[in-house]
Design goal:
- It is a single chain.
- The chain has helices at residues 2-23, 44-54, 77-84, 98-105, 153-170, 175-199, 216-221, 240-252, 266-276, 291-295, 300-314; strands spanning 37-41, 58-62, 88-91, 112-115, 207-210, 225-228, 257-260, 279-282.
- By secondary structure, it is α/β, with parallel strands linked by helices.
- The protein has a domain at 200-314: Rossmann fold (3-Layer(aba) Sandwich), CATH 3.40.50.
- The strands form two sheets. It has a four-stranded parallel beta sheet, sandwiched between helices. A four-stranded parallel beta sheet has the order 6-5-7-8.
- The chain is globular and about 60 Å long.
- The termini are far apart.
- The structure holds zinc ion.
Length: 318
């Protein structure tokens, strides 16, 4: 008896859905409970784009867990299973995440691979500062190009458009919503881009010295020169030769701040101030996002605004 009532209810709901979809058209008539498509996003900035554009109509699975590095991510068996049953995977090719690319290469034809590098123009990787020795922090694509495209909001805009196009093809019934959501995120990215252009227009130094050569795209946009140093990081004792090379470069180019990805130990920060005449500050390459940042409500836009205010201070912009 109960079963029969359930069946009747199901039929009633089903015919209501049919009636609604027969009307077609306006968004208020689209069944909000329609099964979502599931798509995978390979690391944080891409995940944010897909979530923003997809809204409630797309279930996003992230392949790089919060707090982990994008480059050397390993996929679990569970992630591989979810990936192979997804509608699409959004990623960056050219060797940035070798494990993701390996998985993408063996996916069934039902999973649409969307390589977002195809929507942007790549820059060459800068050489490290002459005279600095040791490890240089910064991934390089298999082609020798620089992977950090997302740090220029203009590239985020191009990738957002590509995501909206791909999702609209996968779920044409929500194309209007995807495009509207994309436009609103693009407007935020344009505002961020305008802030970068305005606030970095007049700076006493136009040289961004960094231990992680992640900022080529941002620097190019702002007409600033990125200089990558090797051998100075929280895990490595810098050589006297490296310090001397950085010091003479800093003197010649009025560099007062050197940017790092993580806090330096206090003694290394003091060594830089004493021997190089520059103080360390932080820049976030937004290659991932920490659980703490997520909990604090951080986003690509807020992290980039924080980067911008540190650059304004470190390059002495007015
Ligand atoms: Zn990097």
């Amino acid at each position: 008896m109960d079963n029969l009532i359930l069946v009747n209810r199901f039929l009633a709901v089903a015919s209501l859905v049919l009636a609604l979809s027969a009307c077609g058209g306006s968004s208020s008539q689209v069944d909000a409970n329609k099964t979502q498509i599931t798509v995978a996003a390979s690391f944080y900035p891409i995940e944010e784009i897909v979530r923003k554009v997809g809204g409630t109509h797309v279930n996003v699975v992230e392949l790089t867990p919060a707090g982990q590095g994008a480059h050397d991510v390993q996929l679990t068996a569970k992630q591989l299973t979810v990936l192979s049953t997804s509608s699409a995977v959004f990623y960056i090719s050219d060797g940035f995440q070798p494990e993701v690319e390996k998985a993408v290469a063996s996916l069934p034809g039902s999973v649409v691979p969307v390589d977002l590098l195809q929507s942007v123009t790549l820059l060459d990787v800068v050489a490290q500062l002459d005279g600095t020795e040791g490890e240089t922090d910064g991934e390089v694509l298999a082609s020798g190009k620089d992977p950090h495209v997302w740090l220029d909001p203009a590239n985020m805009i191009a990738m957002t458009t590509a995501v909206a196009d791909a999702l609209s093809q996968l779920s044409p019934e929500f194309a209007t919503q995807f495009n509207a959501a994309a436009q609103s995120f693009i407007a935020e990215l344009q505002t961020l881009g305008n802030e970068i252009d305005a606030q970095l227009a007049n700076c006493e130094s136009r040289v961004l010295v960094t231990s992680h050569r992640a900022f080529a795209y941002l620097a190019k946009r702002a007409n600033i020169r990125q200089v990558a140093i090797a051998g100075v990081n929280p895990e490595e004792e810098p050589s006297a030769k490296s310090l001397e090379a950085i010091a003479s470069f800093a003197r010649a180019n009025k560099v007062s701040t050197i940017f790092f990805e993580t806090l330096l130990p206090a003694d290394l920060a003091k060594t830089l101030a004493d021997k190089v005449g520059a103080t360390p500050d932080l820049l976030d390459p937004v290659e991932g996002i920490s659980s703490a940042d997520i909990a604090g409500g951080a986003s690509y836009i807020s992290i980039q605004r924080d980067n911008l205010s540190r650059l304004v201070k470190g390059l002495r912009c007015s």
